Amino acid sequence: MSNHLRGKTLFISGASRGIGLAIALRAAREGANVAIAAKTDQPHPRLPGTIHTAAAQVEAAGGQALALSCDIRDEQQVEAAVAASVARFGGIDICINNASAISLTPLLDTPLKRFDLMHGVNARGSFLVTQKCMPHLLKAANPHVLTISPPLAMQERWFAPHVAYTMAKFGMSMLVLGVAGEYRGRVGVNALWPRTAIDTAAMAALASFMAVGALRSARIMADAAHLILTADARRTTGNFYIDDELLAADGITDLSGYGPPGVPDVDITPDIFVPSLRELRGPPATGSR
Fold first, then answer.
1. pLDDT averaged over every residue in the chain
2. Is 212 exposed, middle or buried (0-12, 13-18, 19+ CB in 10 A)?
3. The pLDDT of residue 6
């Protein structure tokens, strides 16, 4: 398949900042069209960027942009955003489920309102966006759905500290599993998750109640996503990719450019839901001399 996204149309939820924006800019540099579907249409007191600043960045990078104020929990808003994207760009080639709500709280500290928000945005919202994009994806030459969600590793350690959030994120991953099977051979449906924590506004917010060290740039997720989105959708489907593993399979093993200068890979803050680099490599060798 083509190794670039020129002329392709991406519909990205939550693309006003973070990983979604990084994927948008990576595609824009190749001349892609990007529909930026997110809630932030006015400056936020604590969060950087709006759909309008993201659109300006996409166009400055060489792409075409459409800023869409859209709450993905609302069916009518999603329908309208998808229709506007098709009207502007003539179709949709790629659907990116990036929008997500997070609260790393235990059972007794998770209000039901927060539980409902996470499930409404993460699982239900991703289902809704995928559902409304699918009729247009089926008309595309090499259609992909990419969801930013973790592998389905059913281990107690990923559920016990924040069961509500894990359920909501795994709901996104179960969507990948089901839709990949339903549309196998027609649409590539995959998940992508970072090995390490990524430098986003969400991580900045989490730093107030958990230890956060060195972070990788969102560019690593954008580069990994690019490999998926330019692959043959008929063959590349049903996978739960980890960013560093995917890049390594493409021959990219030096990841120092994605992290803070001078910080070894093994010292980058690990993300949840996957083993850390330190776990994979084992403890440092010791011995007497």
1. 92
2. middle
3. 97
Residue 12 backbone dihedrals phi, psi, to 5 degrees:
-120, 120
Scan for tokens 């289902």, then name that residue: 127
Q: Which of 103, 104, 100 is nearest to 124 (CA)?
A: 100
What does DSSP say about strands 94-97 and 240-242: parallel, antiparallel, or unpaired?
Answer: unpaired
pLDDT in the model for residue 286: 44
* 79 token code pair: 């329908």
Own/partner long-range contacts of 22-25 (Cβ < 8 Å, ≥24 apart): 22/217, 22/218, 22/219, 22/221, 22/222, 23/96, 23/98, 23/221, 23/222, 23/225, 23/226, 24/54, 24/57, 24/58, 24/63, 24/65, 25/57, 25/58, 25/61, 25/222
Helices then strands (H, E): number in the chain?
11, 7
CA–CA separation, 125 vs 19, rounded Å?
A: 17
What is the per-residue DSSP string for 10-54?
EEEETTTSHHHHHHHHHHHTTT-EEEEEES--S--SSS---HHHH
Residues paired with 15 in a beta bridge: none
pTM over 0.90: yes
**Residues with a known catalytic role:** 165
What's the pLDDT score for residue 287?
A: 40
Distance CA 37, CA 34 (A): 9
Inter-residue contact 114 to 64 (CB < 8 Å): no
What is the rounded distance in angstroms from the CA atom of residue 229 to the CA atom of residue 242? Answer: 15
